[in-house]
Amino acid sequence: MNLTENIKFNNFDKKKPKKKLFKLFKNLLNENNQILKSLSDLYEDSWSKNTILKFKKFKNFLLIGMGGSVMGSKAIYSFLKTKIKKNFFFLDNFDKNNIEKINRKNKLNLIVSKSGNTLETISISNILIKQNSSNIFITEDKNNYIRNLANKLKSEVIEHNNYIGGRYSVLSEVGMLPSKLMGLKVKSFRKLNELVKNKIFVNSLVSNVSSILTHVKNKRFNSVILNYDESSQDFFYWYQQLVAESLGKKGKGIFPIISRMPQDNHSLMQFYLDGIKNSFYTLFFVKNKNSQKIISKKILKSHNYIKNKNLNDISFSQFCATETVFKKKRIPFRSLVVHHRNEKTLGELFTFFMLETILLGMAMKVNPFNQPAVELIKNETKNFLKTN
After folding, report:
1. How far apart are CA 373 and CA 379, in angstroms?
2. Residues 5, 340: Cα–Cα separation, whole Å
3. Which strands, in side-by-side order, build the sheet including 222-227?
4. Does 44-187 match 7-29+190-364 at the fold level?
5. How confident is the model at residue 103, as a pLDDT?
6. Where are the domains of the chain?
7. Average pLDDT over every residue of 195-224
8. List of residues 6+ apart from 321 with CB closer than 8 A
């Protein structure tokens, strides 16, 4: 079944979802929700044309941020890198070697923090941002460290929508300003209005959520991604935060695990097939016409079956073989095959997984938009720094 013209989708099963889930989805669409607005072409970005004209001359960009402030942009850059002529670097951890390597001249710094008080972002910025640096800061319109630093440096400040949390912010200014500077088509990402009119998309989404709820009820709490596309690895790190931080509350949740394929055929697959049955799986593949070809004349007779193949052909055969074996062993899985690598496809994937996560949260009776437990670590860290 084609989820959209760009994505082929096979759901876990063919069972019809309960009407209650369709009602939840309808209620969600009727809410005045800023997150959903950012997924549609109705969303108005807070940057000006002058900002783009002023900064698009740069060839090197450094994005500093933590979690949702950077992961969406990182996913976009990795997934669409073949279309992007600019160099983007990302700092979202304390990595001394990376900090020193990235500290190059003639770059634009993009510093992103919703609260404006993210400790790691403040610390890295302190080391890398100079008085004469070229910077854009993205933060909330309130008194905070990042905004005060921007004012001190007389740097450009773009408003971070107060109502959109980091992990849902990829199609707002947080992910779309970097995308614009990458030279990508921002409008092509935001297709919610079109997608919700697509009955196949809506039915697949709701049916998919229904299946996941059944798996969780049957004590399958691990969502394992078998990713056969290296350029999508950062996309699934984004998904990992989205699911873990949105649903992991009140002793409930789904634990997302990312498996790099076909590498993990030779390490983890044994467990997936014959280990504890506490997981459901997502198989993900991207078609690639420009994949490297096997040099046929070098192939020995015993392996003639890979002559005239490319690496994408071999990987897809492994993908199909995994589907076949999972079916035989009755292991629950869904699969997505991407036919076109472009902005629209990636926007559809972001939208699908965000809607899925929000619906799961509503059905599981947890708030998918907050992260109260994370604040505990932040507060204790401050206490340690103040007393040591």
Report:
1. 10
2. 9
3. 7-10, 333-338, 279-286, 222-227, 255-260
4. yes
5. 65
6. 7-29+190-364, 44-187
7. 95
8. none
Q: What is the pLDDT of residue 188?
A: 96
Distance CA 43, CA 27 (A): 20
The amino acid that residue 23 corresponds to is K
Whether 366 has a pLDDT exceeding 70, the answer reads yes
CATH of 7-29+190-364, one of 3.10.20.30, 3.40.50.10490, 3.50.50.60, 2.60.40.1840: 3.40.50.10490
Residue 104's pLDDT is 61
Q: Alpha carbon 119 to chain centroid distance? A: 23
Is the separation of the CB atoms in 239 and 296 below 8 Å?
Answer: no
Angle at 65 between CA 119 and CA 260, to 5 degrees: 120
List the structure tokens of 107: 């770059």
CB 294 within 8 A of CB 306: yes
**Per-residue tokens: 278:** 């506490």
| pLDDT over 80 at 15, yes or no | no
pLDDT given at position 18:
80
Angle, to 10 degrees, between the axis of helix 119-128 and the axis of helix 145-153?
Answer: 20
Q: How distant is the alpha carbon of residue 76 from its chain centre?
A: 8
**DSSP letters spanning 14-41:** -PPPPHHHHHHHHHHHHS--HHHHHTST
How far is the C-alpha of 169 from the C-alpha of 183, rounded, in Å? 19
State the pLDDT at residue 40. Answer: 93
Query: Which tens digits make up the pLDDT trace of 204-218?
Result: 999 999 999 999 999
Confidence (pLDDT) at 16: 80
Crossing angle of helices 199-217 and 19-30, rounded to 10°: 120
CATH architecture of the domain formed by 44-187 = 3-Layer(aba) Sandwich (3.40)
Phi, psi of 136 (to 5 degrees): -125, 130
**For helices 372-387 and 119-128, what crossing angle results, to 10°?**
50
Residue 42 CB coordination number (10 Å): 11
Tell me which residue has tokens 């990829």: 170
d(CA 244, CA 368): 10
Q: How far is the C-alpha of 39 from the C-alpha of 213, rounded, in Å?
A: 24
pTM: 0.95
